[in-house]
């Protein structure tokens, strides 16, 4: 018997949480929900999950559920998160916490009022090379951070064919929420000013920019340059390009996870498969997404405190909003 969990939203990311939770001894996946009832039914059948529903509300009415993972599209986190919190469940919500900072604030207030865990899945804090950079900083091996460059970009497959709701979010919300979180985590100080620029051409029919570049200035000095686009050619060997360079007062680090050490040339194509996030190794699921879920289960059990504080999720949505505003208004935005 473990912590009884439900998952709302069973798309690309939701199904990975299903895989991860099924492999965690202290967790019991007791229910799933999706507006697409057929999807919920087939996932429940395939993974032997006792109950399935068509909405967060129905799932949250099931009293045995103690905690809920929300993996609905970026702009649809508010309703399932509030349903879960109001029903007394702890919540792990996908990044970005919300597409509007006001919605993130409502979630934060509800979780505080009810003294429930509300953690945002900034999963790269559990991604070994990025987690190791934090350890180096904590140990003082590279001194204090001076400046950083972080690029996370996707191929055009993501907005064109993977996300039916790409026009409802933005490249800043979908991708830069990750890199803004890493920058804030490493600097350990608040962002005071944001300046950003964007370009719109390839995806102009979707009403979302192709790419955005942002400069974050931190309280007490130091800056991070973030770059995210989602128009890389589909012929790229990896669906994403993720790189970091961080220069500290006593050293520097470089991370490149575009290539995880495996390249396959076959059928006229070169591909870089990704296994660090979730991989089934001889029947056993491993990977950093599993570590996020395991940490969440530990927190719900009272054996750990969330590595990602709810305030950090809210602040992240404010930073992303400032980035979007700055790119539209062509001026620096103070936070
Ligand atoms: N942490 C990461 O690195 C990472 C990676 C990919 C996606 N995500 C995030 O996960 C979330 C989901 O992304 P995705 O790629 O899985 O999207 P998706 O479109 O593949 O899946 C979303 C699912 O939610 C369902 N849904 C929509 N509205 C719902 C509602 N009100 N109640 C219940 N179900 C509902 C849809 O039917 C669909 O099955 C997004 O916020 C995204 O940014 C995070």
Description:
This protein is α/β, with parallel strands linked by helices and 335 residues long. The protein folds into 2 domains: 3-122 and 285-304, 3-Layer(aba) Sandwich (Rossmann fold), CATH 3.40.50.720; 128-276 and 314-334, 2-Layer Sandwich (Dihydrodipicolinate Reductase, domain 2), CATH 3.30.360.10. Helix content is 35%, strand content 27%. The chain has helices at 12-22, 37-46, 56-61, 78-86, 101-113, 128-139, 157-162, 171-187, 288-300, 310-329, and strands at 3-8, 27-33, 51-53, 67-70, 90-94, 118-121, 145-154, 191-199, 211-218, 223-229, 240-248, 251-256, 264-266, 269-271, 279-281, 284-286, 333-334. The strands form 4 sheets. A 7-stranded mixed β-sheet has the order 12-11-7-10-9-8-17. Helix 4 runs parallel beside helix 5, helix 5 runs antiparallel to helix 10 (310-329) and helix 8 crosses helix 10. The longest helix has 20 residues, at 310-329. The model has no long low-confidence stretch (mean pLDDT 97). Bound molecules: nicotinamide-adenine-dinucleotide. The site of nicotinamide-adenine-dinucleotide has 27 residues, from helix 1 and helix 4.
């Amino acid at each position: 018997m473990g912590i009884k969990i439900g998952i709302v939203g069973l798309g690309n990311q939701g199904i990975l949480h299903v895989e991860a939770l099924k492999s965690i001894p202290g967790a019991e996946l007791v229910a799933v929900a999706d507006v697409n009832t057929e999807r919920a039914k087939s996932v429940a059948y395939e993974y032997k999950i006792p109950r399935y529903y068509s909405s967060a509300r129905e799932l949250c009415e099931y009293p045995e559920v103690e905690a809920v993972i929300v993996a609905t599209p970026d702009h649809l986190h508010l309703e399932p998160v509030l349903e879960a919190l109001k029903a007394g469940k702890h919540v792990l919500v996908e990044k970005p916490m919300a597409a509007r900072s006001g919605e993130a604030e409502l979630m934060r207030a509800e979780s505080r009022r009810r003294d429930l865990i509300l953690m945002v899945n900034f999963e790269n804090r559990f991604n070994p090379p990025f987690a190791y950079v934090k350890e180096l900083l904590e140990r003082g091996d590279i001194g204090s951070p001076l400046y950083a460059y972080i690029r996370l970009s996707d191929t055009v497959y993501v907005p064109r064919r993977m996300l039916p709701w790409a026009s409802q979010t933005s490249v800043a919300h979908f991708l830069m929420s990750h890199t803004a979180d890493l920058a804030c985590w490493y600097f350990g100080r608040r962002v005071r000013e944001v300046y950003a620029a964007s370009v719109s051409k390839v995806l102009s029919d979707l009403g979302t920019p192709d790419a955005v570049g942002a400069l974050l200035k931190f309280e007490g000095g130091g800056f991070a340059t973030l770059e995210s686009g989602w128009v890389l050619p589909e012929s790229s060997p990896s669906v994403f390009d993720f790189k970091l360079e961080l220069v500290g007062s006593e050293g520097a680090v470089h991370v490149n996870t575009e290539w995880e050490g495996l390249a396959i040339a076959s059928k006229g194509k070169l591909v870089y498969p990704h296994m660090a996030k979730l991989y089934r190794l001889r029947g056993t699921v491993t990977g950093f997404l599993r570590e996020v879920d395991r940490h969440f289960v530990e927190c719900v059990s009272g054996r750990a405190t969330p590595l990602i504080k709810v305030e950090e999720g809210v602040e992240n949505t404010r930073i992303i909003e400032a980035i979007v505003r700055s790119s539209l208004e062509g001026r620096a935005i103070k936070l």
